[in-house]
């Protein structure tokens, strides 16, 4: 019987073992970018599909909203044919998709203008209001949340939690009316409803649509002060409600970070408490907090309907509300798509900021 050669049974040398090749860093980044773009595309297509079918199931006939209830049958049939509503649903969705991607949201029944033109006119007012509101909300909410977490269970913590609870509980329209009554009607500290007084409205040439920026660029400081006096009250109101949410989330994130082992180690090394809180704990808490602030900003851009109604603020929320009350579905759906696009864009921005704040989230 032949004895097997032990060398023949020995494993192959390590150099001869072929290891699976790993894709290069460049290929991995491209793959991650491709997956991310596919997710964004599918999300946007889902948004368009939802808005399309909402426009079809709502018991409002866009043809009758355009031609009127007393229009002759042949006029209604012709308008329905011109709008493509006599075609199959899948064909209507294709036409809708093609128009939306080209920036055509149709014509507003209420204003007789292209919907995109109305949105371009109304959106800067909402953007100005929401931007100042989020600066107020995040600028106060983050420090208050940090302070409440550091002083957990003490008087400061209780006061911050009460402020947040009031912000969640009090209806915003009631608080807006009370603020107008006290600070505008009684004390006269701020401007009233609207963006600017009539005396300045027709003398100012709009450039960006942001009144504070336009008046500053034109050197019209008296008009700048007037616009700021109208803006400060609704922006502070929105900022208060966003501050209630941001301070609560900041407190929660900071409590989690302050309980981590690296904080105990930093204290054992003798680092100052201020450095541990602001340079280490808050820096780690800012990673999830970025999403909170971004979504709060998106909520102010689309959720300020009641505030704009109370203060007669000519923004996107008031435009969508008036369009919905007048069965102007082109304007309603166009505004909804813009709001959804804002949410998608801010989510994209928060994901990009993740990679700057936390290197562990970068593709390796």
From TrEMBL:
<dbReference type="InterPro" id="IPR035906">
    <property type="entry name" value="MetI-like_sf"/>
</dbReference>
<keyword id="KW-1003">Cell membrane</keyword>
<protein>
    <submittedName>
        <fullName>Binding-protein-dependent transport systems inner membrane component</fullName>
    </submittedName>
</protein>
<dbReference type="GO" id="GO:0071916">
    <property type="term" value="F:dipeptide transmembrane transporter activity"/>
</dbReference>
<keyword id="KW-0472">Membrane</keyword>
<feature type="transmembrane region" description="Helical">
    <location>
        <begin position="36"/>
        <end position="58"/>
    </location>
</feature>
<feature type="transmembrane region" description="Helical">
    <location>
        <begin position="333"/>
        <end position="357"/>
    </location>
</feature>
<dbReference type="GO" id="GO:0005886">
    <property type="term" value="C:plasma membrane"/>
</dbReference>
<dbReference type="InterPro" id="IPR000515">
    <property type="entry name" value="MetI-like"/>
</dbReference>
<keyword id="KW-1133">Transmembrane helix</keyword>
<feature type="domain" description="ABC transmembrane type-1">
    <location>
        <begin position="123"/>
        <end position="354"/>
    </location>
</feature>
<dbReference type="InterPro" id="IPR045621">
    <property type="entry name" value="BPD_transp_1_N"/>
</dbReference>
<feature type="transmembrane region" description="Helical">
    <location>
        <begin position="285"/>
        <end position="313"/>
    </location>
</feature>
<dbReference type="Pfam" id="PF19300">
    <property type="entry name" value="BPD_transp_1_N"/>
</dbReference>
<keyword id="KW-0812">Transmembrane</keyword>
<feature type="transmembrane region" description="Helical">
    <location>
        <begin position="129"/>
        <end position="150"/>
    </location>
</feature>
<feature type="transmembrane region" description="Helical">
    <location>
        <begin position="162"/>
        <end position="185"/>
    </location>
</feature>
<dbReference type="Pfam" id="PF00528">
    <property type="entry name" value="BPD_transp_1"/>
</dbReference>
<feature type="transmembrane region" description="Helical">
    <location>
        <begin position="227"/>
        <end position="246"/>
    </location>
</feature>
<keyword id="KW-0813">Transport</keyword>
<comment type="similarity">
    <text>Belongs to the binding-protein-dependent transport system permease family.</text>
</comment>
